[in-house]
Amino acid sequence: MTVAEVGSLFDAVIPLKDDQKVIFKLLSDSILYCQAIGSSAWSLTMLPNGFRLNVGQVEVMTWGVTYFEAEEDGEEAESFSVVRMLLCGADCLTKLVGEEDCFEEMSYASVGDTHWCYTSDFQHSRTAVAHESRLPFEKDLAALRSNHHRFLQKASRTSTGKLRQKSHFSQHHCPALYEYAIRLVDGR
Fold it and tell me: How far apart are CA 33 and CA 4, in angstroms?
């Protein structure tokens, strides 16, 4: 798959570049954080309806799109971005008041610390105006960023503390997806 093919795919699924940027900013921030701590143990896998970022042997972020058909003739179908983001730190449960149902406790043995999966979504917009459902989602991502980085730190290390240098999912890595993310976030 080429960068142009990835771009065409995402333009069709998420028409508004600002909506795409929210997803790809989270993705590139996660990868850049791993690289900053010296780990190259990450890989991106294209999925039938999205993508997954793994670090070492665990999922750290998954994005997918969900569609809802129009209920009445003349209405457009709606599409939503759905994000799963893994987190460490007991304080993450207190950062989103009233949204406890967004968190699920996880049990990756290799992480070795209590951790959660935050799941949320936002509706895609077809206009240049940001859709209202994206704004709370962006606020949540900002509030949980340090907890996501803590999870990345754990996923990047073995149980003995050694920095991982290879992902168990590297055979599925999609370089064009990574290149598209960087180009979009950097404005190229």
Answer: 26
What SS3 state is found at 6? helix
Q: Where are the beta strands (DSSP E) in 26-77?
A: 42-47, 50-55, 58-68
pTM for the whole thing? 0.89
Instruction: Assess contact for 53 and 86: CB atoms under 8 A.
Output: no
**Among 104-113, 119-128, 140-149, the range of highest mean pLDDT:** 140-149
State how many domains the chain has: 1
Owning domain of residue 92: 3-68+76-186
With contact defined as beta carbons under 8 Å apart, do 104 and 119 qualify? yes
Q: Where are the beta strands (DSSP E) in the chain?
A: 42-47, 50-55, 58-68, 78-88, 103-106, 115-123
Phi, psi at 54, each rounded to 5°: -110, 145
